Amino acid sequence: MTGLQVFPLSCVVQQYAWGKRGSSSEVARLLASSDPLAQISEDKPYAELWMGAHPRGDAKILDDHISQKTLGQWIAENQDCLGSKVKDAFKGKLPFLFKVLSVETALSIQAHPNKELAEKLHLQAPQHYPDANHKPEMAIALTSFQGLCGFRPVEEILTFLKKVPEFQLLIGDDAATQLRQSGSSDPQTVASAIRSCFSHLMKSEKKAVAEQLNVLVKRISQQMSAGNNMDDICGELLLRLHQQYPGDVGCFAIYFLNLLTLKPGEAMFLEANVPHAYLEGDCVECMACSDNTVRAGLTPKFIDVPTLCDMLNYTPTPSKDRLFPPLQSQEDPYLSIYDPPVPDFTVMKMEVPSSVTEYKVLVLDSASILLVVKGTTTASSPMTQAAIPLQCGGVLFIGANASVTLKHTAPQDLVLFRACCLL
Questions:
Q1: Among the options 21, 29, 195, 295, which is catalytic?
Q2: Is 295 a catalytic residue?
Q3: pLDDT per residue over 151-185, tens digit each?
Q4: Is 292 helix (H, G, I), strand (E, B) or coil?
Q5: H/E segment holding residue 48
Q6: Which of 210, 245, 230, 107 lies closest to 160, judged by CA?
Q7: Residue 79 carries which DSSP code?
Q8: Is 295 helix (H, G, I), strand (E, B) or coil?
């Protein structure tokens, strides 16, 4: 194995239609900051920055000694860089994909399968489910970030059934009554009632959905024009989603799912079978290295309503319980750790004040990817011949057990995120 284990990366920008356009995108800002020659078009969406070794977006290595190789190619030839435990557990492959997302248009009502279901779906429909891996993921807000996550408490859903007759009509009286009567029952009965209501909605005829949405949109628009506040039925959000996806059943999902607005640094973790959607904002995202997503609305992509309704976890939770708080490191006052209950990935956030002129990055028995989102620095290591300059948007690969020291090169605080695998 080559001794070189610390090097900068040139990452892949994905210009999906739902992304923020031009300089409004955090992806574009990071791209422009890290590469002065980058041409940012205000007309194009800059949706995702992929930092990893995924076949559809394999980062390129920026080092004269190993140039012309992608990260995936280099790891395949130098598997020890992953760390012994990671190498064995994940068959010599980087187990996570690290991203930055900039969302302007809502990004599908969806859920991710567990490993058992992923294997089954991949066998049945590989064109829609391209691998057999699960895809837990975590989003950490960079700006104010809005998303849907998990089923609301029953009382909240019942309130919407009262206040939004169009919603009640699509669900039907029988399913709505079942939900009302489930209030003090055991959790399994409650979950069954929510499942019945959600399935009735998602399997409604397209014509009926479009008709009821048009009635609701007209009513909200008239009320808002008259100066009335419609926040109690998420009026502004409903109109925005309907404008983005006219007549889509996913617009009604806001009455089932918790609406979260994350502040910068706040996170939500999306384990298998939890329904969710990203609505607006910028985030760092980390996930298991997979492409498996089951969608059912707010998307032009393939939808699979029966699979989604069958697989979901229907246990209701308050929105505050969907937040995933980081742990503060006991050894490092500048380090916060977002460690979800899956083996594939952990994300670390480092906020290093400018008064700390030299900062030693924690040595890990795992390959990791480091992203600078604020400040400028140089990274030095016994494994590099010269210090590596890193500006905002700069990305660094760090092999397992490699030591890296960062030095400020400007009187500005440093903010960094690091994806790794802690086994």
A1: 295
A2: yes
A3: 999 999 999 999 999 999 999 999 999 999 997 77
A4: coil
A5: strand 48-51
A6: 230
A7: G
A8: strand
